[in-house]
Structure to design on (429 residues):
């Protein structure tokens, strides 16, 4: 039976286990015991964070009582892509505690000389495995692309910023000529997400994790490198809509022009758009041009929770559902990029809402993403003072699997081979 001890940090970056306390997990505003079966080894590529101004909450190994660890700051884990966290780190936040940066804060513990986290591997595709990235090959690949496309601003942005500075896994895969190639296009956005990773207002104390694109690429610039990628890469995908831009649908005319031109040169691979789904009419035009799949990001299937987070300009929650239906009607693949927040995502109200949403959109896939945001800050900003009792993220997944047997679960946009072939087999492995 796995019962990890609580971890704490000395504030100097050193992490220790407290053998008087078992680690707990957070769901909404509550600290809870974690089922033994929910703990897995911290996967390769994961990292640990000390949480300044916060005291970890643990279970006394003798009394079973919940109490704070006064020995140091709380600790959380950043779990790598392809894994979904089942509980957040449980801690009490001090008055002076700074807002945490835009990363995910999964619970973590220490057991038999190893780090453990409550999580599941939700995706078998290995495209973002840390072991798969060779720095020398990436540098050579980036150099080759910059030489091959000397006047292409987008290749310059992707290689110099995304690949070599931000270490974006998608841009690194592009430098290695494989799998999903990112195509950011939009400097502007029509939403104002609280946890936007490409733009944070001056008055906020936290920073966006990358700078937003500053120019509008042309269709020619897009086509120049995406056609060779689709023609030569294994399991090729080109994806509009990346973390380093605003909303790609605001550039739909350029995207349409690019898709039409791409498909004149190759039928290979999937053309995907990651989007907030705000403009169904633009999505329809892209489907006509040849768009194959769409991924719509959402923190909740409940209108009031969604709009409290996205703070949309000139669109409403109903528009994102319609964008998904438009792609299904055109025979395309539809995913939601579902920001998982234990205690909110697995609340009974959210469960009812997501069932209705899946049925109402004929959705094909849920990508169970860890929500990269300070939990207290998020709940405070959306005005959620009481999160109530939750069903458990694993339980929610099992219920949806049982009710919607054709609905796929994962973490990444599927390549055409997986969309048209054997979903359980046809991917990078
Ligand atoms: S939709 Fe994307 S770019 Fe726009 S505010 Fe939200 S996170 Fe930022």
């Amino acid at each position: 039976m796995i019962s990890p001890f609580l971890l704490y940090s000395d504030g100097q970056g050193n992490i220790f286990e407290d053998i008087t306390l078992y680690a707990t997990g957070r769901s909404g505003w509550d600290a809870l015991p974690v089922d033994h079966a929910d703990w897995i080894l911290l996967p390769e590529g994961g990292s640990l964070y000390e949480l300044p101004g916060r005291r970890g909450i643990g279970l006394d190994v003798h009394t079973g009582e919940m109490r704070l660890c006064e020995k140091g700051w709380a600790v959380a884990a950043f779990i790598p892509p392809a894994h979904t966290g089942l509980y957040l780190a449980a801690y009490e936040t001090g008055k002076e505690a700074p807002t945490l940066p835009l990363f995910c804060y999964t619970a973590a513990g220490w057991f038999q000389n190893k780090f453990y986290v409550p999580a599941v591997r939700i995706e078998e595709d290995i495209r973002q495995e840390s072991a798969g990235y060779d720095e020398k090959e990436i540098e050579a690949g980036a150099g080759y692309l910059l030489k091959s496309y000397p006047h292409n601003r987008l290749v310059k942005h992707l290689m110099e910023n995304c690949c070599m500075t931000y270490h974006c896994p998608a841009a690194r895969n592009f430098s290695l000529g494989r799998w999903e190639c990112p195509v950011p296009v939009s400097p502007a956005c029509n939403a104002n997400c609280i946890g936007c990773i490409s733009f944070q207002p001056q008055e906020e104390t936290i920073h966006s994790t990358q700078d937003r694109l500053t120019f509008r690429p042309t269709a020619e610039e897009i086509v120049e490198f995406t056609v060779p990628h689709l023609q030569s890469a294994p399991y090729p995908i080109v994806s509009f809509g990346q973390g380093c831009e605003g909303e790609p649908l605001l550039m739909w005319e350029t995207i349409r022009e690019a898709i039409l031109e791409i498909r004149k040169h190759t039928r290979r691979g999937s053309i995907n758009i990651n989007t907030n789904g705000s403009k169904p009419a633009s999505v329809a035009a892209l489907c006509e041009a040849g768009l194959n799949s769409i991924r719509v990001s959402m923190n909740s299937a409940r209108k009031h929770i969604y709009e409290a987070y996205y703070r949309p300009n000139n669109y409403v929650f109903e528009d994102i559902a319609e964008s998904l239906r438009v792609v299904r009607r055109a025979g395309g693949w539809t995913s939601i990029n579902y920001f998982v927040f234990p205690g909110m995502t697995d609340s009974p109200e959210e469960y009812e809402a997501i069932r209705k949403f899946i049925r109402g959109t004929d959705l094909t896939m849920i990508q169970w993403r860890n929500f990269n945001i300070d939990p207290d800050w998020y709940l405070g900003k959306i005005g959620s003072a009481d999160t109530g009792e939750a069903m458990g993220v694993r339980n929610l997944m099992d219920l949806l699997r049982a009710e919607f047997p054709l609905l796929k679960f994962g973490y990444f946009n599927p390549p055409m081979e997986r969309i048209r072939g054997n979903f359980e087999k046809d991917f990078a492995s």
